Amino acid sequence: FRSPYSLTGQQTPKDLYSRITMLITLGGPLNIPHLLHNGPNFFVAYQWTRNSNASTLSGLVPDAAERNGDLASVLNAQGQPLTIYNPATGLPFAGNIPVSSQAAALLNLYPQPNLAGNSRYNYQAEVLNDSHLDALQSRLNRTIGRKNQMYGGFGFRSSRGGSSNLFDFLDNTDTLGIDTSVNWSHRYRHQTFVLLGYHFTRLRTEVRPQFEKRENISGQAGVAGNDQDPANWGPPALMFSSGIAALSDSDSAFNRNRTDAVSLSVSTTVRRHEFIFGGDFRKQEFNEYTQQNPRGTFTFTGAATQAPGGSSTTSGSDFADFLLGIPDTSALAFGNADKYFRQPVYDAYFTDDWRLRPELTINAGIRWDYGAPMTELYGRLVNLDVAPGFSGVSPVLASDPTGSLTGSKYPNSLVRPDRRGFEPRIAISWRPIPASTLVVRAGYGIYDDTSVYLSAMENMAQQAPLSTSLSVANSAACPLTLANGFRNCAGTTADTFAVDPNLRVGYAQIWQLSAQRDLPGALVMTATYLGTKGTCGMQEFLPNT
Question: If phi over 0 gives left and psi between -120 and 50 gives alpha, with beta otherwise, what is residue 28?
Answer without folding.
Answer: left
